[in-house]
Design brief:
The chain is of the alpha/beta class. About 40% of the residues lie in helices and about 20% in strands. It is globular and about 45 Å long.
Length: about 290
């Protein structure tokens, strides 16, 4: 999960060859806008309403981005960002989901310490200064905060008129958000019907609070999109997940995305892989279309 010990080597291997590191910061802005335009130009994209909201939790007030179709009540989706937190790229991804017919809450996981954004536009985990900001923030979170936050955010969604309480909630997580997705599904099993993780880290560990141990408590269908380099380092994790979900009799799709590095999905990532990111996005929509109908 955003392992600085391996990141430099992976950057050299997976960074798109047409970009050097200095060029990436400029290109990321263009990529992000392209993703937003792609969503907005879709023939079936719904009109949406966007707002900045404050969600009360046991530990304070979380600043979040809430976006939903302009009319009607829809299935809700709770989005847990990667280690760089709530920022324009994740607002764009949330809006794209909303344009597909979901009421979406994208959270600032670091609200206890700092309002979003916690890094400047174009920041990359490849930069040591960025890592020095976000790694200490990530260490302020744990299994307990994951659960208390999840319950508060689900309660917020269920109180919104744009959310259909007759439909299950979906939740997605990237990088460090992966374990939080699993804990969310276990913490509110009657509401969460689908979970998806993209290059999630720490899903299977040897610790007593490992997320995979919570699978028997879940009632959700799952999608796991695994980065090639993450799988190379932890090849057995996918098998542990597959076996645990099979025992729980929960439908699950688990796939290693060839050529995709840890962090390949957000459009502002140094290792963004458009083709594989779009394929993962389409698998997400397929899951939600089935599990949240």
């Amino acid at each position: 999960m955003c392992d600085q010990n391996h990141y430099e080597d992976d950057l050299e291997k997976y960074l798109r060859p047409e970009l050097n590191r200095r060029q990436f910061g400029i290109a990321a802005v263009g990529i992000s806008m392209a993703i937003l335009t792609h969503a907005a130009d879709a023939a079936d994209a719904m009109d949406v309403v966007e707002s900045e909201v404050s969600v009360k939790t046991p530990d304070g007030a979380a600043d979040c981005y809430f976006v939903h179709p302009a009319a009607g009540a829809h299935a809700a989706v709770l989005v847990w960002p990667d280690i760089l937190g709530l920022r324009p790229a994740f607002r764009q991804m949330g809006k794209r989901l909303a344009q597909s017919g979901y009421s979406v809450l994208v959270v600032n996981p670091f609200y206890r310490s700092q309002k979003a954004p916690v890094v400047s536009a174009g920041a990359s985990f490849a930069n040591e200064a960025t890592r020095n900001i976000v790694l200490p923030l990530a260490k302020t979170l744990n299994a307990t905060t994951h659960v208390t936050d999840a319950k508060a955010f689900v309660a917020f969604l269920d109180a919104q008129p744009s959310v259909s309480k007759n439909r299950k909630i979906g939740t997605t997580g990237y990088c460090m958000g992966g374990p939080i997705v699993m804990r969310t599904a276990a913490a509110v099993p009657e509401r969460v019907g689908a979970g998806a993780t993209f290059h999630g880290g720490g899903l299977v560990t040897k610790q007593p609070d490992s997320p995979h141990l919570l699978i028997p408590e879940m009632k959700a269908q799952f999608l796991f999109c695994i980065a090639e380099n993450d799988d190379l380092r932890e090849p057995e994790s996918k098998n542990v997940l597959r076996d645990a979900f099979a025992k729980a009799k929960l439908p699950t799709e688990i796939e290693v995305y060839a050529g995709a590095a840890h962090g390949w999905c957000p459009p502002d990532s140094a290792v963004y892989n458009k083709d594989q990111a779009e394929r993962a996005w389409n698998r997400l929509l397929a899951l939600f279309g089935k599990a949240l109908a």
